Amino acid sequence: MDLNKRFAQMVVEINETANKFKSSIVIRTDNKCIDAKSILGLSYTVLSSQAFKLEIHGLDQEDAKVAMAHVFWKNSLPVEII
Fold it and tell me: How many distinct helices (H) and strands (E) make up the chain?
């Protein structure tokens, strides 16, 4: 699979997963905070970072944590849920 296509699919999958939840999902990396529900911010963050920390807060946060950890793991992206 072409690297650009794989990258685009990964970003879309992370974004679509985040948008399934009402909770706030923030990705922290390289001194930046990005809303996982923002496809533009997410694209730049995934492209330029090596490790990710997720902050998830809200009514459905436990389900969101499990789903987001899975999508990062599935795409071989190192993630820490904080």
Answer: 3, 4
Q: How far is it, in rounded angstroms, from Cα 22 to Cα 56?
A: 10
Residue 65 neighbours by CB under 8 Å, 6+ apart: 54, 56, 81
Which two structure tokens, joined as six digits, stand for 13?
């999958």
C-beta of residue 44 within 8 angstroms of C-beta of residue 18: no
pLDDT in tens, 43-61: 877 777 888 999 999 999 9
Q: Which two tokens stand for residue 67?
A: 């789903």
Strand order in the sheet with 24-29: 32-35, 24-29, 52-57, 79-81
Of 73, 57, 81, 59, residue with least CA distance to 14: 73
Please, which residues have CB within 8 angstroms of residue 55's CB and are 6 or more apart in sequence? 24, 25, 26, 28, 82
